[in-house]
Write a structure and sequence with these properties.
Length: 415
């Protein structure tokens, strides 16, 4: 028997106005056991808050007092999509392309789908429960059966909407490959995007993400990735933040010989917050992870990095993993919080992590100013060069656009 609204309220601990509105939205959707389990997983924590260890620097509950429409539309244009098939998700509709790259099939599911380990990703669980549109699409499944000739592009945008909840599932068949570009450009008071990626033997996947919300929006982008035997996964993200924004990746090496590369950069101005959080489980021998995250923050901005490598005993043997986070505090009043972690139980591994934060090198600034470059331009150029390494793995079709977006931000903001 479906839970009543009263029953749902009882599952939350002191629900706030935003949570009550989310309960009301859930009650409007078709009944489903899978949807109910996902919503119960979300209810066990409610909107994440600072008393939760994994969310202590990214407090959605405090920043989302109620679910209100954004006062602004999309914050920037999506990444270039020439010759790319584009899927656009807005608050109440989905626009699908008329043609697709070879080897790519779309399956529209109107019924709710189960979400494994939903308790580990509270906003992912919330999205799994609320992504359904009454009488419409619940989950879009992207099946990749061979090497796709051109990238697929997902655009998530709003136009002063209240919410935009979207769920996508990607299945990469053995030996297949897909390049996926995502543009999350804001326009909704609360947007949450959940993508689940399943990699089968020998498959490969390159994911490039642009995130840009406004200073009155809450944004969450959650990825759950499972890697098969000798599969390869590459992820590159550039985030400008929002009032509160989190890009979370939970990746599991399920079979031996898999390889993952997780790179990202965040640029935060006053009033903007960007959180890169990742959890990588090396659940099979001889798996490899490389991770580089770089950030630059101005006065009044906040950057967060949380990364964890978990290597179990026995099955995690011969793991090779390296995690690096580096941040620039460009002005007094900038804040960066970082927590890199290694949890290792196997004894035959190569694992390392590094974390640094500081200001621009005054000697480099002096060198550039001696050659006639104005100070503001010199600071912007040095910051651009600093984050460039984290963007090198972006798909070639949009790599220059990502760099241009970062350069434009820095030229306008860094003084």
């Amino acid at each position: 028997m479906a839970l009543s609204v009263s029953d749902l309220k009882d599952k939350f601990r002191n629900p706030g106005a935003a949570e009550l509105e989310l309960i009301a939205r859930y009650a409007m959707l078709p009944e489903s056991g899978q949807r109910e389990r996902a919503f119960e997983a979300f209810a066990s924590t409610g909107l994440p808050h600072r008393r939760m260890e994994a969310w202590k620097w990214t407090d959605f509950k405090a920043n989302l007092k109620s679910v209100e429409a954004s006062s602004r539309g999309a914050q920037c244009a999506p990444l270039p999509a020439a010759d790319q098939a584009v899927i656009e998700f807005s608050a109440g509709s989905v626009s699908l392309p008329t043609s697709l790259p070879n080897g790519v099939k779309l399956h529209e599911r109107k019924d709710a789908q189960a979400l494994g380990d939903a308790e580990e990703v509270p906003l992912g669980a919330m999205t799994a429960a609320l992504a359904g549109r009454v009488g419409g699409l619940d989950t879009l499944i992207i099946e990749v059966t061979e090497t796709a000739t051109t990238p697929l592009h997902i655009v998530a945008k709003g136009d002063r909407d209240e919410t935009n909840f979207t769920r996508v599932s990607v299945i990469v068949r053995p030996g297949a490959h897909l390049d996926l570009v995502e543009s999350h450009v804001g326009g909704a008071g609360f947007s949450s995007f959940l993508i689940e990626i399943g990699m089968q033997d020998g498959g490969s996947f390159n994911r490039t993400v642009l995130q840009h919300g406004s200073a009155d929006e809450a944004q969450a982008i959650t990825a759950v990735v499972n890697l098969g035997d000798k599969s390869e996964y590459t992820q590159t993200a550039l985030a400008f933040g929002a009032k509160v924004a989190r890009l979370e990746t939970r990746l599991t090496h399920q079979e031996s010989g898999s390889h993952a590369e997780l790179n990202g950069a965040y640029l935060c101005a006053k009033g903007f917050h960007a959180d890169f959080t990742s959890h990588v489980r090396h659940g099979a021998p001889s798996s490899v992870t490389r991770q580089v995250t770089k950030g630059a923050v101005l006065d009044g901005g906040t950057g967060v990095f949380q990364g964890k490598f978990h290597v179990p005993r026995t099955i995690g043997q011969h793991t090779d993993a390296d995690m690096q986070h580096q941040a620039l505090l460009l002005e007094d009043g900038a804040e960066v919080f970082a927590k890199p972690e290694l949890e290792i139980y196997a004894d035959d591994v190569e694992c390392a992590h590094g974390n640094t934060s500081g200001a621009l090198d005054p000697n480099q600034l002096f060198y550039m100013r001696q050659r006639g470059i104005p100070e503001a331009q010199a600071r912007a150029l040095l910051t651009e060069a600093f984050i460039a390494e984290a963007l090198e793995t972006a798909h070639e079709s949009v790599r220059d656009a990502l760099t241009d977006a970062a350069r434009s931000f820095l030229m306008e903001s860094v003084r």
